[in-house]
Design goal:
alpha/beta, 626 residues, binds 5'-O-[(S)-ethoxy(hydroxy)phosphoryl]adenosine
Length: 626
Amino acid sequence: MEGEVFYPSQDAIANSYVRDWEALAESARKNLQGFWAERASELFWFKKWDKVLDDSNKPFYRWFDGGKVNIAYNCVDVHLQTFRKNKLALIWEAEDGKSERTFSYYALNREVCRMANIIKAMGIEKGDRVTIYMGRIPEIVFAMLACAKIGAIHSVIFGGFSVDALHERISDSESKLIITCDGSMQNGKLVELKRIVDESLRHCPTVENVIVVKRTGHEIPMEGGRDHWFHDLCALPIANGKCSTEVMDAEDPLFILYTSGSTGKPKAILHTHGGYMVGTYATLKYVFDVNDEDRFWCTADPGWITGHSYLVYGPFLNGATVFMFEGGPSYPYPNRWWQLIERFGITIFYTAPTAIRALMRFGEAWPNKHDLSSLRLLGSVGEPINPEAWKWFHHVIGKDRCPIMDTWWQTETGAFMITPTPVVPLKPGSGTRPFFGQEAEIVDEEGNPVPDGQEGFLLLKNPWPSMMRTIYKDPDRYIETYWKKYPGKYMTGDSARRDKDGYYWIIGRVDDVIKVSGHRLGTAEVESALITHPAVAESAAIGLPHEVKGQAIYCIVQLKPGFAPGEDLGEELRQHVAHHLGPIARPEEVSFIDKLPKTRSGKIMRRVLKARAQGLPEGDLSTLEE
Ligand code: WTA
């Protein structure tokens, strides 16, 4: 094999569900539907499917059609009939370390039932949308599972988003109910989530009720008739007792999750009960080799797809013990995460390159203070991991023992698409090969495969169960965005190259999506936040390489007549974006320009701005307007 290769240990192989990767890959290649049917059979169905895959109306693929199922039933109820009833399902620790809560599967069921009873009592029925906007506390997990249990469609919005982002997503989903909390703690600072909800609800006529979980206990306004404290609702008789599980069609929607695309407003990616369940279950099982002795920690927030698939659904489907931490990696000290791994005996640790790079900077002394010997597998997701960070993670955290699963996937794919399993030889920076049943292709602009070693557009060739089904309320955009340019193949929006060994190396997005600390943001969203400021005539947001964040947002602003550029205004505009779109979208820098470079048809030439900002050649300028 070419390049630097890390081979799996005999231990990793002996423990793995899939010892013979090639054999399973081959059998899935030969019989895609058979492979997935077998995975699906390991889960509980109220009624078995009639057809594994219905591709009669491409690209609107249907999986396990005719099957009756509920993902929440498979996450919770099925475990109550086994020894797992008394096994820990969830361990949670507060940011300040002052409170710890644990839930067995039995307790998880009670919490989910209670939340579901309350949601139902708010008039929510199957198919209704519920927006969830909270910090990383156990109730966010209960809320998601409760919605699934009663067949409501959840729309979780990351707590790092702010007023405008929240408003837009609530309006688009026409949610009737919001579940939030008074506030959340981030790096010792209070984030006033409920106040942001209040502000964003000013023009959201569909919202009838807001459930507020008490987390921080600070004073907040409650609007009579609309806002309800969760603990008050829990005290009502309606909250008590079992809640029956809605029997869903496999293809019924489970959730929508807004994600940024290249242009315009964020897209509501829709996933379903059946296929998403099978996909997240099988990928987690095979890639992270989860079994009953494990304590699995995925550091992602439930507000992103990684949190949906691998903090909530995937692990519970596998009956795992999940660890969830409210805070971030380095508060109050850069050993916070390492301390937690030691304290809770985490065996599988799944995080993002940006966090690894940030923690690397504090030096080895911090992790070396802790006993990390419980770890057996590590994982990375969200952006390409640079070999330097990979090796640090492998050596300093994994003590050269723990394979790193570099998992490439997207909100749209629902589950891992290009990923190793513990028996696959690893190359730092490569996600290795497509998961069982998947094939990838790298093509040029016209769709012709490019030779190995050359960069091109990454496409996926086969349908898979956890694929998005559509963009909620916008099926045309679904076709247009993912299936139109290369008919019959799924366009990922990433560029990549494949090496001689068939390993894939992701290079990055080819559209206007920026990955800031692994968070997916769209340039269009940043620009539309800027335009609401009275001084801004027009603006362009671009992503530039950043040592820790991977990419950072830079904005170039053209001012309206009468406004003068200056440092203060730059700072004001950064804050403006943070207030409207969210602190995660705060631009690294705002600079000013007399006139933005545009094509004759009026499109901003971001490519030129990017090149200029990095001091690179500006390339072909023939389309630039006079
Ligand atoms: C990027 C996150 C390289 C990629 C799960 C993709 C990655 C986008 C990796 C999706 C990885 C994700 N290596 N790049 N292991 N994982 N990406 O929807 O550009 O937030 O298209 O899903 O993240 O971001 P999303």
